[in-house]
């Protein structure tokens, strides 16, 4: 997946393109929700893929998220008959050795037999989660503004953060990490970071706090929590 996006980004940059259209569809969205559910994803993860996203300086659009795979394949076949152009099929898409393909080839047929409309239902669930994410982001943005953040957003007041409820402490921490381009920590790592921050001296003089998170470092100094890139 990362390699595909890297290749798309290189091609877009070579061609001077800032927008890339992806062919993800409703079936892909439903599979993504199931996979993230099985991996224990939170609200953000359950929102699955968005219609618009940013990555490596490129804007990706997914105009077919509301279309099912069968409809797209019918259209592709019509194009083939009219023009001779043949759609390329990735053989790994049907290889159950890969997790997503296992969901598609082994689990999906069982769900089809019991709940024929499950893909639309699960995709609708993702849309509801996306709305919830938007609300949580708005709350986190307001909370972060009350933490005496630095002008560049890389630090905030530990004392002000500790006045939030535990749930809002966690949410604003996720917001802050995302704001600074840090990859989201696993649930276990986030809980550990929360524990360490809560146990710090209220003035933040415990300089032992130094948590590395996917290329970024979170530390506390003189009552403020900082994040910085290791690079």
From TrEMBL:
UniProt organism field: Achromobacter piechaudii ATCC 43553
Judged by the first EC level, this protein's enzyme class is: ligase
Assigned keywords, A-Z:
ATP-binding, Cytoplasm, Ligase, Nucleotide-binding, tRNA processing
Provide one Gene Ontology biological process annotation: tRNA processing
Q: What is this protein called?
A: tRNA(Ile)-lysidine synthetase
Q: Which reaction does it catalyse?
A: cytidine(34) in tRNA(Ile2) + L-lysine + ATP = lysidine(34) in tRNA(Ile2) + AMP + diphosphate + H(+)
Domain tRNA(Ile)-lysidine/2-thiocytidine synthase N-terminal: where?
1-105
Domain tRNA(Ile)-lysidine synthase substrate-binding, chain residue ranges per copy:
157-226
List the GO terms this entry assigns under cellular component, sorted alphabetically: cytoplasm
Gene3D superfamilies, A to Z: 1.20.59.20, HUPs (3.40.50.620)
